[in-house]
Amino acid sequence: MNMGVTQYKPYEVVKKPVENKIIYCVNKTPYRNTEYLMTIFDLKDVFFPYISLEVCRRVLNALDINLFIGNSLQYQALQEAGRTNVDKMPMIQVTDVMTYMPQLQYMIRSSNLNQESQANKRARIS
Q1: What φ, ψ does residue 67 adopt, rounded to 5°?
Q2: Where residue 123 falls among pLDDT bands split at 50, 70, 90?
Q3: Parent domain of 72
């Protein structure tokens, strides 16, 4: 038995409850299970399925929420857990999701209403 080899993987995917929904997340730091990241695709898909990924990115940017690009082992762990569309997908800290959820909901609802009102306006024909 080699003492230098550990049986634990540096990154593991876990299911965490956030806002009464279960999300897949991966640890931010190797071998440490204190901070977790989730993809913005999963954020959009789980909490805001009616908006585009681009709108989700714009809202996160407007709120000045830090996004992270994972490393190949984090993306590999997510893919092995059955997550698709993860390669090079920006990630957000789960703690930020919980902290900013009220603002995210408000801004996304506002941007969605704004898009609907723009679509409902018709050109006036004189």
Answers
A1: -110, 150
A2: low
A3: 13-115
Q: Which pLDDT score, from 0 to 100, does residue 24 have? A: 96
Sorted by sequence, the CB contacts under 8 Å of residue 47 that are 6+ apart come out as 19, 21, 101, 104
What is the number of structural domains in the chain?
A: 1
Q: Over the stretch 48-64, which tens digit does the pLDDT of each residue have? A: 999 999 999 999 999 99
Q: Rounded to the nearest 5°, which phi and psi values hold at 48?
A: -135, 60
CB 108 within 8 A of CB 51: yes
Residues for the chain: how many in total?
Answer: 126
Does residue 106 form part of some domain? yes
Q: What does pTM read for this prediction?
A: 0.81
> Given the structure tokens 């540096």, which residue do they identify?
10
